[in-house]
Amino acid sequence: MKRLYTTIAQHLRQGESAMLATVLRVSGSTPRGAGTQMLLLPDGSTSGTVGGGEMEFSVIQLGLALLGEGRSAVRSFHTLGARQPDGPGAICGGEVTVGLWYLPGGDVRFATLFSDAAALCGDGGGWLALRLQSGAGGLGVEPALTDGQAVSFSKSVTLAELRPFLWNQPVYQSGEPAWFCMPLPRERKTYLFGAGHVARKLGALLGVLETPFAVIDDRPELCCKTAFPAAARCIVDQPSAALAGLSIGPEDEIVTMTRSHMTDYAVLEQALRTGAAYIGCIGSREKIAMIRRRLGEAGFSQDDIARIHAPIGLPIGAQTPAEIAVSIAAELIQSRRKA
What we know:
Blueprint: H1 2-13, E1 18-28, E2 37-40, E3 46-48, H2 53-69, E4 73-83, E5 91-103, H3 108-122, E6 126-135, E7 138-146, E8 151-152, H4 159-162, E9 171-173, E10 178-184, E11 190-193, H5 197-208, E12 213-217, E13 233-236, H6 239-244, E14 253-256, H7 261-271, E15 278-281, H8 285-297, H9 302-305, E16 308-309, H10 321-338
Helix pairs in contact: 1-3, 5-10
């Protein structure tokens, strides 16, 4: 989300108009949930997706038409779902309500809005709220940002109006005006301790998944942007010493795969003292059993130790570094969705 909003701000500052398509509400069988967003540019190129297929094609076609007219709109689209066993050819689909928000190029005000929204994602999080009201010139969109304590950007939207919508999931209330409010969670960061073969493959996958990550290793020839071009940071230091200096948030993930069993243990001992959402360790069952035993001897409870995903990754029979990286990435995705 932070990356998308930064991209929008850049296009607007460069004078290029854009359309931001947002899934406001879904019912039935739909490919994406409320809060999913897609940026549409005048040349038809997109960033993000609202579901793909015929539905997304229809959104793009309508969005391009609205871009040409400089208008915003809210429309409902139908999706095709699975065939039902009790009816030849019957299709059970869903309905997706999409807000198409016109963003005029060169508008410094809107560019600032999305820069500020990206900053919220990088800081403590917050909400983006939209008041949607029909008028003689079409749909009017009044955006506002809030961290839950104060409202910024809009001078007409109040915190009292927004409070009923400040949930940890998107909220859409139809009517005149209609309201849509979506959380801007603090950006998740993944920390890779160890810069070996599996870490390099996992770093490439995290880049594809658009997950900001840092890699930590004491070998500068391995812990570098050449080996990890998608990394936000390459920290050359002893892993356990580096972890002590990091600010680990409740959305963050810690993956340890250093070249030393004792270093992995030292990282895990510190990781369990953080509120990290995911803690994983690579290694054989014998290594993991030894680490669990030592953590117990160090005073950690069984509930504490159970936070560790080890052996790391989903059990897909992975053997090569690339396959192991895929299994770890899949487990990270599973952990995020459960959260």
